[in-house]
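forwarding from the other thread:

> can someone predict this with cytidine-5'-triphosphate?

sure thing
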Amino acid sequence: MKKTAVIVAAGSGIRMGSELPKQFHEMNGKPVLWHSIKAFTDAYDDIEVVVVLPATFLDLGAGLSLEFPAHVVRTTSGGASRFESVRNGLELVDDDSLVLVHDAARCLVTPALVQRCVEAATSLGNAIPAIESNDSLRVIIGDRNEQISREWVRLIQTPQVFKADILKRAFQQDYEPSFTDEATVAENLGVTIHLVPGERENLKITTPADLAVAELLLKKRNG
Ligand code: CTP
Ligand code: MG
């Protein structure tokens, strides 16, 4: 089946606290976004990639995409929310494709994880990566709090893979605050979500500490 990755890179990185959005920060000589794109082009020779960029950084993003063949990587601009950015990216995806929506900020994603998600989604219709929590957990109930078992909880990652026609239909819904990823949007249409094992190193760069950790992990990987 045809495969199209939509890599959302249109955020401004408020929690990172730097002028330059985190997806353009360099890690081992290449921008965070470049590492994300590379994992997908390494996973499949025939994959297409749509990169969703901030309107104010279209040139920077387009320049970076030129390092990949033009028939592989296309760019478009995002919106004020992640939901809008994904919706814009989906406009460039054919209905008969599998779509792999990925946060550019998860630049340590591996080709093996991409393939695991695609294989599961090919047979089940969708697949999203999840890992267990290493920390103990509590839920806040009004002014109290209560311990909950780690076994009840999974931490959700990307790439989230769906048949494109279903995800495009789901993204025609009006935005709701519960729509934090593709799974929540599709689930609201009644779609059953399938979890596959994620990877602990597939962290989302959010703060400067995450960037430092990601850089060390990448150095370790590259020997
Ligand atoms: N994203 C996007 N469009 C937006 C907001 C986010 O494409 N309007 C993308 C980000 O670029 C990132 C991914 O969605 O790759 C996950 O979002 P997050 O980690 O929250 O990044 P930011 O929104 O940029 O960061 P912050 O929330 O700290 O501002
Ligand atoms: Mg955000």
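Residues 8-15, 23, 52, 78-82, 85, 103-105, 204, 206 surround cytidine-5'-triphosphate (ligand 1) (CB under 6 Å). thats all i got for now
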